[in-house]
Design goal:
alpha+beta; FAD/NAD(P)-binding domain; D-Amino Acid Oxidase, Chain A, domain 2; 20 strands
Length: 391
């Protein structure tokens, strides 16, 4: 097999990259280790920045997003038993965020690619990349019981944190920045109406809580917990009671319903530099992970793809490799700003075991300042709806 861009991974980064390259007449083959049912069914992030919605729209894969997505013009911070609304739209000149599950965006992009008859291979085994320091890199893999080779001009590593692409770069050529947080999120998906029309972030003495949604009838709710939390110790009744306490829910504000899914999400910050080695380019979770507090994971992947598409378009148009050379630095400028924001939101809203009285009071003072300062609320809003793109 031969293509211009070999893409490993059919998550948001890989699928969007393939779609945007197709719009520009650039051939790509997408290889995915999991089944279609798996990638379309796994529940992931569900909040899109304004720029991410605009990008998916320009890519021609946002028809259902505009029909079913839930537009949010603000969010609420709760602490000390009081709620404080952050007017995202009012503070950013009308920018908003949209609730739309990552798996739904993946379904849309898979459907678009298959409808166009473009190559997307599921259940690929033993993928490995070779010759990335040459002008003719290749991917070997096994599919439908046959060993195959995909010859490429470029390889895009969009295969996530545990994929094969990043480990294919010599360790001496990478610098890794990593922080593992001493807590996790216990998350549930419940058939119950959302607690509010907008997200609620709550800081409580018992730990952080978040109330969000996937639709008008499905709620997504989170509780801070230990990384090694035993889910067997968390009955549905215990979860609902903890949510009610931490969110400060009064009356019928929080309506219980059947729990459809339950799981624990680890919290870490991770960045690898550089994001390019030879003809291999990393994008999305293969290059960076953010704690979910700032809702930035999928949005960062989309931002990476925008930069990579522009660089590859110039390269295949015969305009040279300057933009490819700048790819890593351009992406990392945004990534570190987003890491800062996600870290700030995380440390501001979570309870740290061993936190002394001074640290506790400082965090409360920062929240109080945030609630009372237009400048501070504007800074939060600008980051939350998404920083401007470099292009």
């Amino acid at each position: 097999m031969r293509t211009q861009v070999g893409i490993i991974g059919a998550g948001p980064a890989g699928l969007l990259l393939a779609q945007m390259l197709h719009q520009r007449g650039i051939d790509a083959v997408v290889l995915e280790a999991r089944s279609r049912d798996h990638i379309e069914g796994r529940i992931r992030a569900g909040l899109l920045e304004q720029g991410s919605v605009d990008t998916l729209t320009q890519a021609g894969v946002a028809h259902r997003l505009h029909r079913e997505g839930l537009v949010h013009r603000g969010l609420e911070l709760r602490f000390g038993g009081v709620g404080h609304r952050i007017d995202l739209a009012g503070l950013t000149g009308g920018k908003v965020v949209t609730i739309y599950g990552q798996q739904e965006a993946v379904k849309d992009m898979v459907a678009a690619r298959l409808a166009a008859g473009l190559p997307l291979l599921f259940d690929v085994a033993d993928a490995a990349i070779h010759d990335i320091d040459t002008n003719r890199p290749r991917i070997t893999f096994r599919h439908d019981g046959r060993d195959q080779v995909l010859d490429c001009d470029i390889i895009a590593g969009c295969d996530g944190f545990h994929g094969v692409c990043r480990p294919s770069i010599p360790p001496a050529d990478l610098r890794i920045f990593d922080r593992v947080y001493p807590f996790a999120w216990l998350g549930i998906l419940a058939r119950s109406p959302p607690m509010s029309e907008e997200l609620i972030y709550a800081r409580h003495a018992d730990g952080f809580a978040l109330a969000t949604m996937r639709s008008h009838s499905i709620s997504r709710l989170y509780l801070q917990c230990a990384p090694e939390e035993d889910l067997a110790q968390w009955s549905d009744d215990r979860i609902w009671a903890a949510l009610r306490t931490r969110l400060g829910a009064s009356g019928g504000e929080l309506q219980e319903g059947p729990v459809l899914q339950k799981g624990v999400t680890a919290m870490r910050s991770f960045v690898v530099e550089p994001m390019r080695h030879g003809r291999l380019f990393l994008a999305g979770d293969a290059a960076h992970i953010v704690p979910p507090t700032g809702a930035k994971g999928m949005n960062l992947a989309i931002a990476d793809v925008r930069v990579l598409v522009r660089a590859l378009e110039a390269f295949f148009a015969g305009e040279g490799g300057d933009l490819m050379d700048a790819y890593s630095a351009t992406c990392l400028d945004r990534i570190w700003k987003v890491q800062r924001f996600s870290w700030w939101m995380t440390q501001l809203l979570h309870r740290y075991d061993g936190e002394d009285a001074f640290e506790h009071r400082v965090r409360l003072a920062e929240l109080d300042y945030l609630a009372g300062s237009v400048a501070a609320r504007t800074a939060l809003a600008e980051n939350y709806v998404g920083l401007p793109y470099a292009d």
